[in-house]
Design brief:
Radius of gyration: 25 Å
Shape: globular
Number of domains: 3
Largest sheet: 6 strands, antiparallel
CATH architecture of the largest domain: Sandwich
Strand order of the largest sheet: 23-28-24-27-25-26
CATH class of the largest domain: Mainly Beta
Oligomer: single chain
Number of strands: 28
């Protein structure tokens, strides 16, 4: 919920008090703030509304606690107080906003039928959601597109650009719809990157340019990386749009070409971008779908695997924001056993932000157990002839925990 939407909600409910105005001044200004669980929140917006007696006295309570209230006024003040908390809670889980783009999804049309997005200097918009019930409207309220129109465009050759102006998503159907929408400002980096909407079936993409994938399932799966040679630029994958990758941590980075041939994984986020530093020399391909890969694990002596929490972003600029249009993944478990007498090397890299020790990500390599919680990164290497590797995590629905970890198994070619 944007601050503007929060204001509209508060204004609406305060004016529903239906008490005749007895105020000397026609207009009153207030700051939306509240005390919740002993922690004072920061003001989230400024609210303007017509001065009504109950409204003024209710708001005055925050400035003059000694002011007496009748039971009627306290009841109405509490109703306003609860609504402020509702707006604060909704704002905490709102869209993921980058410097030059925004990803809007389910939470942005919860409790409201409109959600504005940035496009003051012009923008390009995308959505894989096939619905006529969510439309894009301009500042005059005129419909300029539906999400279905965007989803059914041939994104290989067609783009939907909006001139600079004020625009909103508008829900004209049932409340609290499920969707994902990506808006990129025209001066964003990598602006001409192609955006595709992967379906349930794998689709091949030639690795000669960068791609962004926006998924109607809430997840993007990379099934295989074929035909890469030592002279080709190898893939790097991010859980963000094309405009933001320079400031984000990748969820996957190629370690060896041999392992790349046996690497497949799911990014549990609705958007992912794969980049290459330079065009391919040969004709390597990547195979992508919107279908979840389970289990996602090490499968060969030279292979890789990636594990991400639902909604993972991996960009410091967005703080602890997570995508909300995500697959219904509540646990992540993997178990791999690999053996090679000539030797193996296991590398584990990643980052994590897990609030409570009880919700830690547990990684077991043979008899070595690592539990990740707090904020930090991991970079470990093991050498042995046999590995039993386990990973386990269970989602705490009340927490905003996130991690992305990459496992790479490599044949070392020498005995241990």
């Amino acid at each position: 919920v944007s601050p503007l939407d929060c204001n509209d909600l508060l204004r609406h409910w305060l004016l529903q008090l239906n008490v005749k105005s007895r105020c000397a001044t026609p207009l009153t200004t207030a700051i939306c703030s509240a005390d919740h669980s002993g922690q004072t929140t920061k003001p989230v917006s400024t609210l303007y509304f017509h001065c009504e007696r109950s409204s003024v006295q209710a708001l005055a309570k925050y400035d003059s606690p000694e002011m007496p209230f009748s039971t009627e006024f306290v009841y109405k003040e509490n109703m306003w107080f609860s609504l402020v908390l509702l707006c604060l809670a909704a704002s905490a889980d709102a869209r993921v906003s980058f410097a030059k783009s925004e990803v809007l999804d389910n939470v942005d049309l919860q409790g409201t039928n409109k959600a504005a997005f940035r496009c003051s200097a012009g923008c390009r918009i995308f959505s894989p959601t096939k619905t006529d019930m969510i439309v894009v409207v301009d500042g005059a309220g005129n419909k300029v597109a539906s999400l279905r129109m965007l989803a059914e465009m041939n994104s290989a050759v067609e783009m939907f650009d909006l001139p600079g102006g004020s625009y909103q998503l508008k829900n004209v159907g049932p409340t609290n719809p499920s969707f994902v929408f990506y808006a990129v400002e025209k001066d964003a980096a990598n602006f001409n990157t192609k955006v595709f909407y992967p379906g349930n079936n794998q689709k091949a993409f030639e690795a000669n340019q960068n791609y962004t994938f926006l998924s109607a399932s809430g997840a993007v799966s990379f099934h295989s990386f074929d035909g890469f040679t030592p002279v080709d630029s190898t893939p790097v994958v991010y859980a963000a749009g094309f405009d933001a990758v320079d400031g984000c941590r990748p969820v996957f980075t190629t370690r060896t070409l041999v392992a790349l041939d046996y690497t497949e994984f799911t990014v549990n986020s609705p958007i992912a971008t794969v980049t290459f530093k330079k065009p391919a020399v040969g004709r390597p391909w990547i195979y992508v779908s919107g279908e979840l890969i389970t289990p996602n694990q090490l499968s060969e002596q030279d292979s890789g695997a990636v594990y991400t929490t639902p909604g993972y972003v991996g960009c410091p600029s967005v703080g602890d924001s997570l995508y909300s249009f995500i697959p219904a993944v509540t646990t992540i478990d993997a178990d791999s056993t690999l053996e090679r007498s000539a030797g193996l090397r296991l590398s584990i890299t990643g980052d994590y932000s897990i609030a409570n020790q009880a919700d830690s990500l547990a990684i077991t390599v043979n008899n070595d157990v690592t539990k990740l919680f707090g904020k930090g990164s991991i970079s470990k290497t093991y050498d042995d002839t046999k590995f039993d590797v386990k990973l386990s995590w269970k989602k705490n629905v009340k927490a905003k925990d996130a991690f992305a970890v990459q496992f790479d198994m490599e044949s070392t070619g020498r005995p241990y």
